[in-house]
Amino acid sequence: MTYPIADLHCDLLSFLAAVPGADAFSKDQIACAFPWLQEGGVRMQVMAIYTNVDHSSMKMAGKQAKIFYDLLRKEEKTVRKFDADFLKNPASDERIGIIASVENAAGFGHEKATWSEIYKQFDAMLTTVGQLAYISLTHHTENRFGGGNYIEGVGLKEDGKRLLDYMAGKKIPIDLSHTSDLLAEGILNHIDLHHLPIPVIASHSNFRAIWDHKRNLSDEFAKEIVQRGGIIGVNFLREFLDRDVPERLFEHLLHGFDLSEDAICFGADFFYTKNFPDKSRHPIYFPLAENAGKYPSILDSLSQHLPESQLKKLSHENVFNFYQKLWT
Ligand SMILES: [Zn+2]
């Protein structure tokens, strides 16, 4: 049995934008190169627009939005847009449905940008990419919107509230994968206090109940996501699974099923690793999940624990159902 795969996070766009000679078709360069996605049966892939918190963040985000736009035109034999039309008949062709997301709202506004510049950038990026799969306010660090996942004591700032207010009603989920705990709490409270129509997800996060790491979700936040009808994509990075035990991947996935069989999905997080500075993090991935070609063998291993109906939910149905509900 082979399953179509939907995946909530990869960093192909920042790789194409930043690495000289980057080739989306080179299997040697990046683990989410198109041939790997095809080998793994990937039919839907979220492509993050990732930026650091610095003065060039808006320019870099614009560049990646344009790369996404160009992929849809120049590589139309390989990819098509993941949208409401795609969902009407996902099996109608073999191409990979792609959609952009924003990983770090610094892409909308650097620390000194005015709000009219931020609104303008937001609208322009949305026009370029068509729709966003989600927005993450922060990455690891702090920015004008809030505290990232390695920052303690910084939650949702006034600018973060303002961006949430602007997102509301635009059918774009907010992503908790890179929030500090305080920021996650602040986002949920702000949404509830003002009854904002903003779905909540975690695009590429594992569980602290299985591996206690700041970058992973507490069960408290995971349950909040589930209760709000959101989805949680399990991350393949060794650092967030368990530094020594590859099979912990299956425990994270099964823990996701314990929380809800309708929320768990993939958020593998393949990125360009060749210039990753921290040597203790190498290898970044365990061999069993080292590229997008590995989804079939991962699902095969899981078939000892899960029935076919649940493997379908994990592989793509939960993601397709989530966006179907959101967009129609
Ligand atoms: Zn990330």
Structure, explained:
The relative contact order is 0.15. Helix 7 (181-193) links the parallel strand 6 and strand 7 (200-201). This protein has twelve helices and nine strands. The chain is α/β, with parallel strands linked by helices. Helix content is 39%, strand content 12%. It has helices at 12-18, 34-39, 57-74, 84-88, 115-129, 158-167, 181-193, 219-227, 238-241, 248-259, 295-302, 308-327; strands at residues 5-10, 42-50, 79-81, 96-103, 132-136, 174-175, 200-201, 232-234, 264-266. It has one domain (5-327): TIM Barrel (Alpha-Beta Barrel), CATH 3.20.20.140. Strands 1, 2, 3, 4 and 5 form a five-stranded parallel β-sheet that branches. A two-stranded parallel sheet has the order 6-7. It has a two-stranded parallel ribbon with strand order 8-9. Residues 103, 178, 204, 269 line the site of zinc ion.
Structural class computed from helices and strand pairing: alpha/beta
Name the hetero compounds present: zinc ion
CATH-scheme architecture: Alpha-Beta Barrel
Helical content class: 25-40%
Quaternary state of this entry equals: single chain
Helix count, per DSSP? 12
Q: Write down the overall geometry.
A: globular
Mean pLDDT: 97
SSE arrangement, N to C: EHHEHEHEHEHEHEHEHHEHH
How much of the sequence is in beta strands? 5-15%
C-alpha termini separation: 30 Å
* Largest sheet descriptor: 5 strands, parallel
Relevant terms:
binds zinc ion; 328 residues; globular; alpha/beta; 12% strand; TIM Barrel; single chain; 5-stranded parallel β-sheet
